[in-house]
Amino acid sequence: MSAQSNKALIEQYLEAIHTDKSPATLDTYISDELLKEHIAVSEAAFADYWIEVKDIVAEGDKVVVRGMIHGVHTGQLMNIAPTGSEVSIQSFSTYRLENGKIVEHWMLVDILTLLQQIGAVSAPSLT
Questions:
Q1: In principle, which of 7, 21, 73, 75 could form an S-S bond with 58, CB 3.0–4.6 Å?
Q2: In whole angstroms, how far apart are CA 74 and each of 2, 46, 85, 124?
Q3: Are 89 and 60 in contact (CB under 8 A)?
């Protein structure tokens, strides 16, 4: 697949999982079992979370997405009880595609901001 086709596939994937993270939907786009597990853990902690795409770049078999993850802390996260807090955190994800599916991924998220937004750690004092 071309870089443009891969970019289009990731855009379709992100749109699809915005409203449906069922196994059938995930199987349509993903063969990377670690990514499926990551989505399940994230969905358990932040039901109906979604990714707002800020930038998307494709080259060869890789697509990079800079985005904001939005959700509400409705489930257990790293032994932190649900707080009901809304969260918006930056993320960077790289997806490697093969035969029209995500076969590998790498993700960086702003965990410190996430923990601050759910009240697990306080923001540093600037004084």
A1: 7
A2: 39, 5, 8, 25
A3: no
pLDDT tens-digit profile of 46-66?
A: 989 999 999 999 999 999 999
- Rounded to whole angstroms, the Cα distance separating 57 from 104 reads 16
pTM attached to this predicted model: 0.90
Residues in contact with 48: Cβ distance below 8 Å, sequence separation at least 6, in sequence order: 71, 72
Does domain 3-117 sit in CATH 1.20.120.530?
no
Spell out the domain ranges in the chain.
3-117
User: Which residue type occupies 2?
Assistant: S
Closest CA to 93 of 122, 62, 116: 62
Entry field: residues in the chain: 127
Output the six-digit token pair for 24. Answer: 């059938």
Q: Report, as an integer, the average pLDDT of 79-86.
A: 95
Backbone φ and ψ of 81, nearest 5°: -65, 150
**Phi/psi class of residue 119: alpha, beta or left (left: φ > 0; alpha: ψ in -120 to 50)?**
left
Q: Cβ-count burial of 43 within 10 angstroms (0-12 exposed, 13-18 middle, 19+ buried)?
A: middle
